[in-house]
Amino acid sequence: MIDNTDIESIDKEHFEIIEKKNYTLVLRSKDTGHYWCLLEQVYNGHRFFRISHKHNASDPFHLQKSRPTVEECCEYIRSHDAYHLDRIKKKEEHRLHRLGLIVSKDSQMSAKSGRGL
Question: Side-chain half-sphere of 35: how many Cα atoms within 13 Å?
Fold first, then answer.
């Protein structure tokens, strides 16, 4: 059963607790707005959490990973958020580059060396 120690291990600066039940926690990442469901399970006497994810409140959850503690679940989620935010940044940089609004480092280096692309 999810207890106060589990709740205290959640980084409140990064997560909003949406729902807490006996064996389920639903969190929302403040960085991405994504929703995460941690479902506590026990197998052969070992406690672990199944981590499910969705991008919007109206989406269905899909299974991501399993971790042994709430704290490790939160570490996994922060890592996933960093990956997701980096992908968004790279897509935006690529879009701006295509529009000619930014120049890539490779283009700058080629121009300095006298080679065109």
Answer: 15
Is 38 part of a structural domain of the chain?
yes
Domain range for 38 is 4-103
- pLDDT averaged over 10-residue windows placed end to end, the chain, 117 residues: 96 96 97 97 96 96 97 96 89 85 61 51
Report the C-alpha gap between 83 and 77 in whole angstroms. Answer: 10
**pLDDT value at position 105?**
62
- C-alpha distances (whole Å) from 66 to each of 7, 38, 70, 87, 101 are 18, 9, 10, 23, 42
Beta-strand (E) ranges in the chain?
Answer: 15-20, 24-29, 35-43, 46-54, 62-67
Contact predicate 24/38, CB 8 Å: yes
75: in domain: yes
Total number of domains constituting the chain: 1
Residue 2 pLDDT: 96
